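Holo prediction — iron/sulfur cluster.
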Amino acid sequence: MARYLKGIYMDNREKAKKVLDILEKEFPSVTTALNFSNPLELLIATILSAQATDKLVNKVTDTLFRKYRGAEDYAGASPEELEKAIGSVNFYRNKAKSLRGCCKKIMEDFGGRVPDTLEDLVTLPGVGRKTANIVLGNAFGKPALAVDTHVKRVSQRLGLTASDDPDEIEADLTSVIPGKRWTRTTHLFIMHGRTTCVARNPRCPVCKITACCEYFKTVFKK
Ligand code: SF4
């Protein structure tokens, strides 16, 4: 989709590149805020992080990961024991159920190892595309773009997608961004969404990517 901007036509491929180049300079060392040392730990932490802060999840997993080392430990734990271990995280009952179900399947179908493909990861209970892509990109180093609420909002405001559906947004973004930048895109858009392009009252006056933003054009250049 070509858009007329500042005297030039900017298509979404070009726009995404420009945005990512600028955000890379702004947040050169941004990465996932969740602590982990292997794919299983990141999978567990990501499941726990739904509607919970990374800080709280890191606090919980600091103890959890010392007690539960492998998928067999979660799969063999009683619901009550696991609920108690993650009790300070919201939705702990459902999350404990996901952890047990997920790890049982890892034991039964994947020999105790977290699978490293999107197709296999999404067969695990409690694991959708977002979680799968986070694990693929950050624990396995594979090209993967995860769409969370920040990625969704930033992409929509920039005009890189017109969709509300995370799967469609992922498809829109991956069609204009090269695979080697997918994982970085998630980190950079999340950081930009947390610090500048916040949900209510985005901080457009201090934003460095206004020239690429449809929202800015609409609101400030009527
Ligand atoms: S100009 Fe405003 S709406 Fe656009 S990306 Fe920046 S902060 Fe978000």
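READOUT: Strands lie at 2-5, 8-11.
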